[in-house]
Amino acid sequence: MALPLPPRPHRVDVQIAAVSVLSGLALFALGLGTQGDRPLGSPWLLLPLGVLGCMELLRRTAPRVALPVATIALAFDQFTPGNLASVMMFTDIMYAAVVYGTPAAARRIPLTTGAVTVAMTIGFLAWWQQPEAVLIGVVTGIVSFGPAATGVLVRNHREAAAAAKLRAEQTALLAEMDRVQAITAERARMARELHDMVANHLSAIAIHSTAALSLDDPKTTQDALSVIRENSVEGLAEMRRLIGILRDSSDDREPAAAPTLDGLGALIAGARTNGLDIALDHDHAPEGPKLPAPVELAAYRIVQESLTNALKHAAPGRVTVALTRRRGALEVRVTSPCGDPSGPRAPGSGAGLVGMRERTELLGGAFESGPESSSDGDSDGDSGSIYGGKVWIVSATLPVDPADKEVTE
Fold it and tell me: Which of 144, 171, 198 is the last residue of a domain?
């Protein structure tokens, strides 16, 4: 099994090693040493010079190997006339071991070199008993502790910069997520508004145009065309209003008036024109202080979409709209006969129910829809007897105040 090859030295490390070794050779050629009266002759200083040059190649890729070997080489260099290039290479390897080594080594090396510096100072003072012995400690600190302390400062600065960069990237990511969520929420809101504003008119147009095409009766055709024209004009006006809101993004533009429950009578009158038999439960009309605008808008759109669905899917019979305010919440309830419609019907996509549920949940309310047995089916005409007393219920509970959200739970 072949051993893995060591990583290639960094290009900068190769340059540092080459310049350092060439400088050391130049000093050797000039006969410039750092110390005299050593046991080994001048040629011996080439050995630690070469070893330290090789360790410079590993200063970044293998600092755990480079530092111990460089320490042994520098210790051996003390028995030779010495070379300034060897000392400089050792300080660089010490610095690199702290900067590029493991976090544990970065903490351990400065403490170790500091302890060695203090020990050398105290030891030589005790041995020589001369003030000059302090210089030994100073030189030891410059060669070992100084580079290690510098490496700690540089490493801490790099880690702080990396942490700041990471925080900036995370902030940018969160901002992008917020932007995407805001765009998604705005698109969903626009889709609900577009559906609720236009679906009612288009459903009436589809149903009455089908009736006009299927029945060979001039009066029926004339009535159907009148309803079609009325719904076409109203739908076009609402579409233009919505497009104007989307196109005009100026801050000084007057906000468009949102529908309120004051317009519920006109909405029901329009639905009656389209052929629905509607009863508004006045006994349960909301009373008390004025409702918040989001609650009124949601209630209006829920009633509007419920009437649109009744126009498209309900069986003949009475549609009942009831709004009740109790326990800090507005309850909206729309019932319509459940069964097969006798006349033409418009296709549905189910987006209306989704929109009503979303509007209710955005306010922290509860929404339910589905068939239910009618307890007063016989009182609302004969729909109960024909369709087995089944009605389609749309029920939404909208909290009037966020503090009253628990009434829906």
Answer: 171
> If DSSP codes are grouped into helix, strand and coil, which group holds residue 384?
helix
Inside any domain, residue 145 = yes
Given a cut of 70, is residue 82 above it in pLDDT? yes
The residue with greater pLDDT, 40 or 290, is 40
pLDDT in tens, 108-156: 999 999 999 999 889 888 888 888 888 888 888 899 999 999 999 999 9
Looking at residue 39, the DSSP 8-state letter turns out to be S
Residue 381 φ/ψ, nearest 5 degrees: 75, -145
In the numeric block, the tokens 């700690």 are attached to: 152
Q: Quick: pLDDT tens for 356-394.
A: 888 888 888 899 988 887 655 444 444 443 445 688 899
Question: What does the angle CA 211 – CA 215 – CA 217 come to, to the nearest 5 degrees?
Answer: 115
Q: What is the dihedral of CA 31, 34, 35, 40, to 10 degrees?
A: -60
Task: Report yes or no on 35 lying in a domain.
Answer: yes
Q: In total, how many domains does the chain have?
A: 2
Tell me: do 16 and 138 sit in the same domain: yes
What integer is the mean pLDDT of 247-262? 60
What CATH number is attached to the domain comprising 289?
3.30.565.10
Whether residue 178 is contained in a domain is answered as no
Q: State the residue range of the domain holding 356.
A: 260-409
Provide, for the chain, the percentages of residues in helix, strand and coil under a 3-state DSSP scheme, each rounded to the nearest 5: 65, 10, 25
Distance from the Cα of residue 96 to its chain's centroid: 39
How far, in Å, CA of 204 to CA of 224, rounded?
Answer: 9
Nearest-Å Rg of the Cα atoms of the chain is: 44
Please report how many Cα atoms fall inside a 13 Å half-sphere around the Cα of residue 238, on the Cβ side.
18
Using DSSP, state whether 349 is helix, strand or coil. Answer: coil
More confident position, 194 or 87: 87
Residues 167 and 267 in one domain: no
How distant, in Å, are the alpha carbons of 20, 90, 146 from that of 51? 12, 10, 22
